[in-house]
Amino acid sequence: MIKLTIDGKLIEVPAEKTILEAARIAGISIPTLCHHPKLTPFGGCRLCIVEVKGIPRLVTSCTTTVSEGMEVLTSTPDIEDMRKFVLELILSDHPNDCMVCEKSGSCALQELAYKYDIRENEFSGERRIYTKRDGNPFIERDLEKCIMCGRCVKVCDEVQGVEAIDFGNRGFNTKICTSFEEDLDCEFCGQCVAVCPTGALTGKLWAHTGRLDDVKEVNTICPYCGTGCNITVHVKDNEIIRVTSGKETWNEGWLCVKGRFGYKFVSSPERLTKPLIRIVPKTKGKPEVRSQKSEVKKQKEDNFLPITHYSSLFREASWDEALDHVAAKLKEIKTKYGPDAIAGLSSARCTNEENYIFQKFIRAAIGTNNVDHCARL
Amino acid sequence: MHKEIVIRVCMGPGGIAAGGKEVLGSFREHLLKAGIFAKLKEKCSSHQVGCLGLCARDVLVEVHINRNKTVYQYVKPDMVERIVSEHISGGKPVEEWLADDTFKTFYGKQMKIVLADCGKVDPEDINSYIYSGGYEPTREVLTSWIPDDVIDEIKTSGLRGRGGAGFPTGLKWELARRSKSEIKYIICNADEGDPGAFMDRAVIEGNPHSVIEGMIIGAFAIGSNKGYVYIRAEYPLAVERLKIALKQAYERRFLGKNIFNTSFSFDIDIKLGAGAFVCGEETALIASIEGQRGMPRPKPPFPISKGLWQRPTVINNVETLANIPYIIRKGAGWYSSFGTEKSKGTKVFALTGKIRNTGLIEVPMGISLREIIYEIGGGIEGGKALKAVQTGGPSGGCIPASMLDLNVDYESLAKAGSIVGSGGMIVLDEDNCMVNMAKYFIQFTQAESCGKCVPCRVGTKRLLEILERITKGQGRDGDIERLERLCNGVKNTSLCGLGQTAPNPILSTIRYFREEYETHIRDKKCPAKVCKDLLIYSIIEEKCKGCGTCMKACPSGAITGDKKKPHKIDPNKCIRCGACFDVCKFKSVGRD
Amino acid sequence: MNDILLNIIEKYRKKNGNIIFLLQETQEALGYIPKQAIDLFSEELNIAPSRIYGVATFYSQFRLKPTGKNIIVACCGTACHVKGAEKIINGLRKGLELAEDEDTTPDGEFTLEEIACLGTCSFAPVVLVNSAVYGKANINALLKKIGSKRKKSA
Ligand SMILES: Cc1cc2nc3c(=O)[nH]c(=O)nc-3n(C[C@H](O)[C@H](O)[C@H](O)COP(=O)(O)O)c2cc1C
Ligand code: SF4
Ligand code: SF4
Ligand code: SF4
Ligand code: FES
Ligand code: FES
What is the ipTM of this complex? Predict the structure, then answer.
């Protein structure tokens, strides 16, 4: 353990901690933009500068580790002046369009501009102008808003292991890009979107669906796979307009493309909402529709499932009827061919409890060990 | 009696640029023709010599006959025949081509340690270096010293880093020695990014073994077995000579396993830079050797504890390392007898710009600027007035003519708002505009900023924009204060040395030439007549002979007039290129 | 081209090289770095293409487009600047009829590069034409020289 004082407060933290981490442990807040607790330190935004006794220059607290007896000041008029200066510079190269920005209200840069009361910009000048839009289906990359914090690059490399993007060019023209600035073509996990402190990276699906007004946030579990990531769905007018995940969740806020961007199914008109019982068996050729003409017609009218060579036809049923039907069929097979003629395959999208019950059912009720799980593929 | 004839042709950067290769070839040819080469085969050799220093007079040729030295300047291949026939065969030097008196003053005030052997030893022949005492210091250190002895010796010598920051070399080595690690590295920084400095190039081209020796001794001191030389790809000859030198050092087993049959082994590899000034910065250099983008990272941790591949690493400049064998050879006491109390030894400067004798000079620390400019440099070119001396390149500042008696050492220059830096020294005269100079340097640093941190990435851009508008006549009230606030912020908050020092050229020119800025902003005039957009060209009627030369030269058709009658410039069409001003033989184009 | 690139990969493996090494070798062999090279390196060596591209665009030595037949390098280092390099560079751009933001003539004959200090400051301003050094350069003489090159190749 290392003892040091921050703003006159004596604290004790494990060695290897940075000044920033130590300050946070002590409940002292230091503004940051490029720092992310799960990623390697970068030191580019310069906002977290602090004064350390004995070091002539201001140092970045996110990159400097603590040492015994260190005396740190996190806020002096000089430091605040410099922070404001740096923010002014960032904003001098930033589109002034918070009005229509997807990130407004949850933007770290906006928050700091507000805190430091930056209205007029003394240093206005040329801005980077990028007109080409990235054609990928999921991620809006508005790089004029990028502050070059490098978080996206690091998350893609250090967390996702994909390295789809990196810094390109240098100096004022530095830009986060793919090889030859082609359209993004990656896993679209959206980890980069999640860590971007500004509106540079947002979901294309989110655009103009709602920011704060009348948006409810509901914590739930991702329905896709057995990993069970915690997610927060943002709901407006009873529709999901965005999915996020908090840093404090067990999945640390990381999601995959399905969890983050695959939420449109919830309100899809194609979604099954009632049990269906097949009325025309699946065949290889043309579906046999002669005997059930009326049914087919009705379903066609309902604009239900389109009839193709491979589709079969269903009719709606109640849960009771559907379950009875399944039970009867299973019994029938079991008596005729024995329990081993039956196998059960459950889904990674079920919970542990559901999976447990399922295998119990197959083993105890059906009487076979033919049970497996799709995640073992 | 056989005459012993040695001919030395300057093949330094300047020499080669001025045609040194051709002169050398010509000597070969004519000596052969005259039968001298054949007759005196053993004793007469045409050395390829590194920088002789006085580049402005290149190609310089030394003719030694029985150890009597004669120096010729401005030698061209077609002059060689006469030198061979009259001087070498006939024994009578060709008087009119001899280097003149300034040549003596040029060398008089200098003190050569690092450059002492440049121009004497053949950089492509290790034997020549060994004959002059080379590798003896390495042998002694490796066979009879312990590492702490080396560190003590270097500490006592007072040697400070010559790459820019002036950090005490002995202390750096000591800290690295104390860093606990199985593996340590030593890197020679030969990136020489300051545009206008070329001493590192000259040392490597002229005496590469001195640098290699410095590295071996340094490696021994800190306990490293692996070194790298990070060298600019823009210096192909230096790279070539370094490769040859390394090869020869390996052949002699000064490098490799069990050097001098001791348990000490050391290898050196070359890494080529790829054109990025910021890679001279230690952490960026390390990133570059690792094959990454050269983006610096915050210090601490310093490279001496976490450097290349996370191992303790010492980075030293070429000139720093080249000093080492001489300090060991002649002793720390001898070395520290030169210089001032806090700045010991000598420093090499690249003296260029508006000065009569341009070239590399090596002077004891603490010498006055006046001595450098007027005695060594021979004064200002073309009888103009000295305006300022720029030192330290893009990280340094301008020292005005009024401070000519300033001593050149780390402390004094820092006090004056500049730095010793890597040793660029550019002399500016009345025709140089200080705002333009400031703009030039910030243009350079802005283009070389790596883009990682905000103040440097955006701040240098804003600085450049303001200077651009000032030099275009669009300066605004308060621009000087705006510049000062920006400079101050960029200096204090930038991540690495590049950003931290980028404002220096602006701050120092504001400090000493504020009124020149004001004239640009307030009166929209450039007193030195450099800022193109502030100049107005007009024809002085009384002087104009109506020859029409200017009319022909004007690319934008702004000049009209009948033959033999005064011409006129249409200010709306004039693009201010100055073509008319340059071509008029009667000096009747006015520029204001 | 593929053979050349595969050779470079071979060398890289032997020498335990890095991305800069790959790019330097490629440029040495081909004069520039084609996209094909980056893609191949990425595939063979399992390095992300974005990373290679990032390195290639960081260092000014690397070019992603082919150069002209003749390469003119103008020094814009401090000593040369003080001695009028700007005039030389502007004169060259005009003489070569280079479009803004372009450094190669449309006919592919000339590429103009600017470099910070060639280390021959005593001869400022300095220009290299295909590696031949022209010290104390004069724009008119230079343009003549270049003009004659153009005629020869025409
Ligand atoms: C932007 C920047 C560029 C630098 N360029 C060089 C250089 O070209 N050569 C050099 O020796 N040192 C350069 N330095 C200084 C080095 O980072 C380092 O301090 C030096 O090589 C240490 O060696 P020394 O102690 O022997 O001087 C540069 C520093 C900065 C911040
Ligand atoms: S979406 Fe995922 S894989 Fe794609 S760039 Fe972002 S972090 Fe990398
Ligand atoms: S896109 Fe966002 S996360 Fe990536 S560097 Fe820019 S601001 Fe940072
Ligand atoms: S100061 Fe400039 S060069 Fe240094 S890290 Fe910052 S942006 Fe890069
Ligand atoms: S948070 Fe420390 S530099 Fe950005
Ligand atoms: S500044 Fe042009 S050669 Fe050095």
Answer: 0.87
